[in-house]
Amino acid sequence: MMNTKINGKKQNKGIMSIIENSLFGVFLAFVFLVVIMSVLSPSFLSSQNIFNILQQIAGIGIISVGMTFVILLGGIDLSVGSIVAFTGLVMALAMKANVPVGLAILIGLVLGGLIGCLNGVLIAKLKIQPFIATLGTMTIARGLAYTITNGQPVYSFSKSFKGISGFIGFVPKPAIVMLIIFALGYYVLTYTKFGRYVYATGGNKVASKLSGINVFKLEILVYTISGICCSIAAILLTSRLDSAVPVAGNGNELDAIAAVAIGGTSMTGGEGRIQGTLIGALIMGVIANGMNLLNIQQGPQLFTKGAIIILAVTIDLIRKNGKKKLTA
After folding, report:
1. Which residue ranges does UniProt annotate as crossing the membrane (predicted)?
2. What is the residue-wise DSSP string for 41-107?
3. Nearest 5 degrees, angle CA 314-CA 318-CA 321?
4. CA distance 294 to 316
5. Does domain 45-327 have CATH number 1.10.3470?
C-alpha cells in the first residue's frame, strides 16, 4: 500500500514537472502547430509566408512585451489597441502637417508614454482597478482617434517613413525591431533591479511595500512602458499599411493577453518569462495565418483565440494547484 502511494506521488511529481516547465511545453505546442499547418496548407512553409507571419506579428509581439510587464505586476491593460490607433493617427496628422518624420515619431512615442503614465496614475494613485482604469482610457483614446479625423483614414506618407517597415535583405525590419524589444525586455526582467521589483510586487504587493519597494513609482513606470510599446507598434503598422485609421489596433488587447497567457505568464502576477511571450505571439501568428490560408472566417478565429486564453489560464491554475499539493 505504501509503495502504491509512493509511486503515485512520483507519478504526480513527474506530471507536474512537465506542466511546470511551461516554456518547453509552449515550444512543443508551437512546433506541433507548425507541423499541422504545413500539412493542411502546402504554402504555409514557403519563405514568403514565413516572412508575412513575422511582419504581421511584429506589432502584437511588441505590444505583448509591455503587456508581459503589466501582467507580471499583477495588472491588465485593455487600452493597448486604442493607444495604437490614437498615436498612429496623431503621427500621421503631424507628418501631413509637414512635421519631420523623426519629430512625428517622437511625438507618437511621448503620447503613448503619457497615456500609459495616466493609466499608472489612475491605478497607483487613485486606486482604481486596472481593468476599470484601462477600460476607461481604452474608450477615451478610441473616441479621440475617431474625433481628430472625423472617422476618416490618413494615408500616403513619405518614402522614408514607409521604409521603416521595409526589409533588410529578406528579413522584415518590423521583425528585427520586435526581436530587439524582446531582448531589451528579457534583459530588464532578468538582470536589473527594476525587473526583480516587478516580479516581487506581482507576487506580493504588500510585502514589496514593506520591504521598501516604491510600488507607486513602479506601477506608473510599467504602464508607461506598455504605452510606449503601443506607440512603437503604431509606427510599424502605419508605415506598413501607409495609412492610419481609427479602427487600427482593434482587438490587439485580446491578442496581447493571449500571447502572454499562452507563454506561461501567470495572470495573477509574479510568475512568467518573456521568452514564453515571444513563443505565444508566434503561436497566435501561426494560428491566424493558417486559418486565413484555409479560408476560415473571422468568427471561428475569434472563438479560437478566446478558447486559447481560457485553456492557458486553466493550465496555469492546474500548475499552481499542483505546486500547492506537492508542497503540502
Report:
1. 21-41, 53-73, 78-95, 101-124, 167-189, 220-237, 276-296
2. -TTTTSHHHHHHHHHHHHHHHHHHHHHHHHHHTT-----HHHHHHHHHHHHHHHHHTT--HHHHHHH
3. 135
4. 30
5. yes
Q: For position 322, what pLDDT does the model report? A: 65
- 20 close to 322: Cβ distance less than 8 angstroms: yes
| Residue 27 cell numbers, joined | 515550444
In the chain, the amino acid numbered 47 is S
Extents of the domains making up the chain:
45-327
pLDDT means per 10 residues, the chain with 328 residues, are 43 43 82 93 91 93 98 97 98 97 98 98 97 97 96 95 92 96 97 97 95 96 98 97 96 93 92 94 92 88 83 78 61
- pLDDT 10s digits, 63-84: 999 999 999 999 999 999 999 9
Per-residue cell: 70: 503589466
Burial class of 1 by CB neighbour count within 10 A (0 to 12, 13 to 18, 19+): exposed
Answer yes or no: are the C-beta atoms of 171 and 182 closer than 8 Å. Answer: no
Question: What does pTM read for this prediction?
Answer: 0.90
pLDDT tens digits, one per residue of 177-198: 999 999 999 999 999 999 999 9
242 CB-near residues (< 8 Å, 6+ apart): 155, 156, 157, 162
Length of the chain: 328
Burial class from Cβ neighbours inside 10 Å (0-12, 13-18, 19+) for residue 241 reads: middle
Beta bridge partners of 109: none
Q: What angle (nearest 5°) sits at the alpha carbon of residue 278, between those of residues 274 and 281?
A: 130
* Helix-, strand-, coil-residue percentages of the chain, each rounded to 5: 75, 0, 20
Report angle CA 202, 206, 208 to the nearest 5 degrees.
65
What is the per-residue pLDDT across 255-302, written as a single tens digit (0 to 9) for each? 999 999 999 999 999 999 999 999 999 999 999 999 999 898 888 888
The three-state secondary structure class of 192 is: coil
